[in-house]
Design goal:
The chain has helices spanning 13-24, 49-57, 61-67, 93-98, 107-120, 163-169, 188-192, 248-254, 260-268, 312-315, 324-340, 348-375, 412-422, and strands spanning 5-9, 28-32, 44-47, 75-79, 85-89, 103-106, 124-126, 131-135, 140-143, 148-150, 153-156, 179-187, 204-209, 212-219, 225-233, 286-290, 307-309, 391-393, 399-401, 406-407. It is α/β, with parallel strands linked by helices. The strands form five sheets. Strands 5-4-13-14-15-12-16 form a seven-stranded mixed β-sheet. The longest helix has 28 residues, at 348-375.
Length: 424
C-alpha cells in the first residue's frame, strides 16, 4: 500500500473524519482550517446507523456513546398545527433494526471530539490557514499569507465555499437553495420552569407542515441548551454565513398557525429573560441561515489524480433526509478504502475515480429524495391525520413511507460492490 502525505482542507465533520480514516491506514495527515477555532454555533447533528457504524470502526464508540445527547428520548413526528403525533421512534430502534446506534450531538461537540481523536492519533490540525489557490498538477496549496504546503494528495473538505472545488472544476461553483432556517438556542432552565414546555426536555420533536418544519432538540452537551430550528421557504440569509441575526418577530408571525407549543417556544425566546440562579440576563439570539445544496458536479477528482473533493464541498444537500453528516462520514471510509488499493502514485487517478463512481449514485439518491420531500410539502404525511402514513428514517439510508411501499437507497450498494471489484 502506498503511504501518502495528505493535506485536508477544512476541519469540519468531513475533514476530521477523513483525517482519522486516513491516519488509520498509515498516511501522514495535516488538516488546514481557515477559522481560528471550531465554530461553536450550529444546531444538533444526528448520526444514524450508517454513520455510527463507521465511527465505531474508527474506535470511537465509547467516547461518542458517552457524549450522546439524545440519550433515551423518543423521536416524535408531529402534525404542524395541533401537535398530533403522526409517528414515533424509540431511541433504541436504530440498534434493533440495523445493529448500530443513532446518536445526537451539538455540532461543536462532535467536531471537538473528532478533532481530539485525530490529534491524539498523530494528525496535525492547523487553524487560521486560509487556502486561496491549489496546484492540481504538482499538488500544493497556497495560503492567504503566502505560505505554501506541498503534499502528495489534497482532499478538499472546505464546505460550500470551497476553494479546492473551484480549482478542480475550473470555475466558481455556487450553491443554491429555496429554503431558509432560523436557529434559536434557549437555555433548558427556561423550559424546566414552564409546565407547557418541560415535557420537551425528554423528547426529540419534529413538527411537519406545508413547506415548513420545526425541529426541537435538546443540547445538554453544549451549555445545557435547547435548540429550535425553523425551516421555511425563502431566500433570506447569506450562504455560508452562520452569525447573521434574524428577526424573531417575523418568525413568530410566520409560524402563527403552528402548534401552541411551538408558539410558546418562540414567546420564551426573549433576550431579556433572566437566569433563575444569577438574575443575570440570558443571551438568546435568533440566527438566520440560508440552507444550501450543491449543483451536480461532473468531476470530484482532478485530471492529475492528486486532488479530490468530498463532503459539503461537492454534495451539500438539503436536510430533509437527515443524512448530510452521515454521508460526509461515509465519504471518509470509502476514500480510505479506495486509497488502500494504490500501490504507486500512478494508481491514484484510478482509485480516486473509483471513489467518485462509488459515492456518486448514493449521494444523488439522497439529494433526489430530499427534493421529493421538499416538493410534497416537506414530508408527505405532514398534512394528513392518518397514522397509516408513517415515516421512519432508516440507519442504512433507507427511507420508508409505508403507504407507498419502500424507497431503497440500498440498491446503490450493488453499484458499490461492482466498482470495488475494479480495484481488486
Amino acid at each position: 500500500m502506498l503511504k501518502l502525505n495528505v493535506i485536508i482542507v477544512g476541519a469540519g465533520i468531513s475533514g476530521l473524519s477523513t483525517a482519522i480514516a486516513l491516519q488509520r491506514k498509515g498516511h501522514i495527515v495535516t488538516v488546514l482550517e481557515r477559522h481560528p477555532g471550531y465554530q461553536a454555533l450550529g444546531g444538533p447533528v444526528s448520526i444514524g446507523a450508517n454513520g455510527s457504524r463507521v465511527l465505531i470502526e474508527y474506535g470511537m464508540e465509547e467516547i461518542l456513546a458517552r457524549k450522546n445527547a439524545r440519550l433515551n428520548s423518543p423521536m416524535l413526528m408531529r402534525r404542524y398545527d395541533n401537535g398530533e403525533v403522526l409517528s414515533s421512534r424509540a431511541a433504541s430502534q436504530s440498534k434493533t433494526d440495523y445493529g448500530f446506534p443513532s446518536w445526537t450531538f451539538a455540532r461543536y461537540r462532535l467536531q471537538e471530539t473528532l478533532a481530539q481523536t485525530a490529534a491524539e492519533r498523530g494528525v496535525k490540525i492547523l487553524f487560521e490557514k486560509t487556502v486561496v489557490s491549489v496546484d492540481l498538477e504538482n499538488p500544493s496549496v497556497t495560503l492567504k499569507d503566502g505560505e505554501v504546503f506541498e503534499t502528495d494528495l489534497i482532499v478538499g473538505a472546505d464546505g460550500i465555499r470551497s476553494a479546492v472545488r473551484d480549482a478542480v472544476g475550473g470555475s466558481t461553483v455556487k450553491s443554491f437553495s429555496p429554503m431558509t432556517a432560523y436557529n434559536i438556542d434557549i437555555p433548558r432552565s427556561i423550559l424546566k420552569e414552564d409546565s407547557s414546555l418541560s415535557h420537551l426536555l425528554v423528547q426529540s420533536n419534529y413538527w411537519l407542515g406545508p413547506q415548513q418544519i420545526v425541529v426541537a432538540l435538546n443540547m445538554p452537551d453544549l451549555d445545557d441548551r435547547f435548540n429550535v430550528c425553523l425551516i421555511c421557504e425563502g431566500r433570506s440569509g447569506t450562504e455560508g454565513e452562520w452569525y447573521e441575526l434574524g428577526d424573531l418577530n417575523k418568525v413568530r408571525t410566520q409560524y402563527a398557525g403552528f402548534d401552541p407549543v411551538v408558539r410558546r417556544l418562540l414567546e420564551v425566546a426573549e433576550p431579556e429573560n433572566l437566569d433563575q440562579n444569577t438574575a443575570e440576563p440570558l443571551i438568546i439570539q435568533c440566527y438566520i441561515w440560508r440552507l444550501s445544496e450543491m449543483p451536480h458536479m461532473e468531476k470530484w477528482v482532478s485530471d492529475s489524480g492528486r486532488v479530490v473533493i468530498i463532503g459539503d464541498a461537492v454534495h451539500a444537500m438539503l436536510p430533509y433526509t437527515g443524512n448530510g453528516a452521515n454521508q460526509c462520514i461515509e465519504d471518509s471510509a470509502s476514500l480510505a478504502i479506495c486509497l488502500e488499493k494504490a500501490r504507486t502514485f500512478s494508481d491514484l487517478p484510478k482509485v480516486l475515480k473509483a471513489f467518485e463512481q462509488i459515492r456518486k449514485p448514493r449521494i444523488e439518491w439522497f439529494i433526489r429524495k430530499g427534493r421529493e420531500f421538499l416538493r410534497c410539502g416537506i414530508c408527505p404525511m405532514a398534512m394528513s391525520k392518518s397514522k397509516e402514513t408513517g415515516f421512519s428514517g432508516g440507519g442504512h439510508g433507507q427511507l420508508r413511507i409505508s403507504r407507498n411501499g419502500t424507497m431503497e437507497a440500498d440498491e446503490e450498494r450493488q453499484t458499490e460492490r461492482k466498482l470495488m471489484d475494479m480495484l481488486a
